[in-house]
Each structure stands twice: as structure tokens, then as C-alpha cells.
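Contributing new records

If you add data, match the layout below exactly. Sequence lines come first and carry their own label; structure lines follow with theirs. Keep one chain per record. Anything else will be rejected by the validation script.
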Amino acid sequence: MPGKVADFLRAVDLEPAERAALDQGVTVRRGRGYTLRVTAAPAIHCQLFARCQPLDGTPDTPVIPAQRKARREYENRVRTLEPIGP
């Protein structure tokens, strides 16, 4: 997950399983920023992605292009995960 997404999620109230996944992630430096490698079930990644929707902008908050791009990158990674179900 991109660092900007991880930073945003750390400031949000998360479920215990989501918080544990973030806390166990490994930071990998990438140029100016970083990537957080999170090993978790696809369902946890889907929940984390759902919580980072405000990075795409809301009527009350302005859009920050770098955060919006980071959210899109995370979306692309989450969508490649295997679908959950029977």
C-alpha cells in the first residue's frame, strides 16, 4: 500500500483486525516516499480500501493530487486480489 494511504489510515478509527494488519506491515523506502507491505486477507484489504475513499475528495475537503493518486494505486492493487466467496 502506498505510504500516503497508510498515513491516512493510521489517523482513522479502524477495526482491531485492520489496525493489526497496518501495525504488522513492513516499510519499504521508495524514492521520496515509502510503501507499506501489508500481509492480510483480501477482505481486510477491501475494508482498508473502503476506509480511504475520502482521499478521492469530498465536498468538504479539497483533493490533494498525490493522495488521490496513491488511493488509485491502492485500488488497482486491491482489485487484482482474488474474489472472496464460496
